[in-house]
Design brief:
The chain is an alpha+beta fold. It is 29% helix and 23% strand. It folds into 2 domains: 10-151, PurM-like, N-terminal domain (60s Ribosomal Protein L30, Chain: A, 2-Layer Sandwich), CATH 3.30.1330; 158-325, PurM-like C-terminal domain (Phosphoribosyl-aminoimidazole Synthetase, Chain A, domain 2), CATH 3.90.650. The protein contains 8 helices and 13 strands. The strands form 3 sheets. A 7-stranded mixed sheet has the order 8-10-7-11-9-12-13. Strand 12 (315-317) and strand 13 form a beta hairpin. The longest helix has 18 residues, at 104-121. It is globular.
């Protein structure tokens, strides 16, 4: 259907005819990833085992960037949060807050991104909501998603991580941050560095179904706070020390150049398509081979080991042989990007 108004107006949020038209337009653009039942609640199939449930809100700045937008980030972020526990993502809800003045064409672009990412991840949208706020009360569009997944295997937990486990990354760090900062500030790096935003449940499933799947103790997606935040979280939870090798960190040269110019540490940079895995040392090379054989893990690397001494710290061996502690950030080194 066609919406007469070229932009979002306050009456799109009144619950009357314009609201109905906006909802019908949204359902049409989403297409087959939306179940299309306009009831107050969704009805989903029960499962015999436990469920994984996660929720997140997205206030991406900028909401539109070179190879994606807030819609893609919302689906990928929620799907990945389910998948890192070992769950199979099934269902999403989609809450939308629209600012008056947002062009309908831009809203449609976000919905198409939601649909494309949902199809790739194999999930369906079972419920949704739209709200409209006055100009200046939001940055064009905010999204909220809740994801539901089912377990076909035992959940992966931080408590399973043990001394001697190898630490792996599925790809380069810093790409998402550098791309969005470059788009926002006009730095010129956005053509050389694309956001890594992607649904990673297929990659996780490939690893866990491989002969080395039982050796994977825990997985975490490396988003806000970057790799530093993930490693400090595991150090606190396990009492072990993640010890990294600086030369093993996968960082693309343009990303390193941009971070040096901006005075930021790539380890603190947000990502939307990178995972950190904790794997039994004897299986690390096998897991690495599986990761590199998948399109989403071609840049994977083994970056360090979990060790027993000085639990609660994060350490790194520099290229010159020095061993340094990596401090946890007290606040925000970077503006929110996901």
């Amino acid at each position: 259907m066609t919406i007469v108004d070229p932009e979002i107006v306050l009456d799109h949020g009144t619950g009357a005819r314009l609201s109905r038209e906006l909802v019908e337009f949204s359902a049409e653009v989403l297409g087959d990833v939306y179940v299309g039942e306009m009831e107050d609640s969704a009805i989903v199939r029960p499962t015999d085992g436990p469920l994984a449930v996660t929720t997140d809100s997205f206030v991406v700045d900028p909401p539109f960037f070179g190879n994606g937008d807030i819609g893609k980030v919302a689906v990928c972020g929620t799907v990945n949060d389910l998948a890192v526990l070992g769950a199979e993502p099934r269902y999403l809800t989609l809450g939308v807050i629209l600012e008056t003045g947002l062009p309908i064409a831009k809203y449609a672009t976000v919905l198409r991104s939601v649909g494309d990412a949902a199809r790739e991840a194999g999930v369906v949208i079972v419920a949704g909501d739209t709200k409209v706020v006055r100009a200046g009360e939001a940055d064009q569009i905010y999204l909220n998603t809740t994801g539901i997944g089912v377990f076909q295997r035992p959940p992966l937990r931080m408590a399973h991580v043990a001394a001697g486990d190898s630490i792996l990354l599925t790809g380069p760090i810093g790409n998402h941050t550098v791309h969005l900062l470059s788009v926002r500030e006009g730095l010129g790096f956005e053509r050389d560095v694309l956001s890594d935003c992607a649904p990673l449940n297929g990659l996780i499933d490939a690893v866990l179904r491989s002969p080395f799947g039982q050796a994977v103790h825990s997985i975490r997606d490396v988003t806000r706070g970057g790799l530093t935040a993930v490693l400090h979280e595991y150090a606190r939870a396990t009492g072990l020390t993640p010890h990294l090798n600086e030369e093993s960190l996968p960082i693309k040269r343009p990303v390193r150049m941009a971070c040096d110019m901006l005075g930021i540490n790539p380890m603190n940079a947000a990502n939307e398509g990178c995972l950190c895995l904790f794997v039994e040392r004897s299986a690390a090379e096998g897991v690495l081979e599986v990761l590199r054989g998948h399109s989403r893990g071609s840049g994977a690397a083994i970056i360090g080991t979990m060790v027993e001494q000085d639990g609660g710290e994060v350490r790194i061996t520099r290229s010159d042989g020095r061993v340094d502690s990596i401090d946890e950030l007290q606040g925000a080194e970077l503006p929110r990007l996901c």
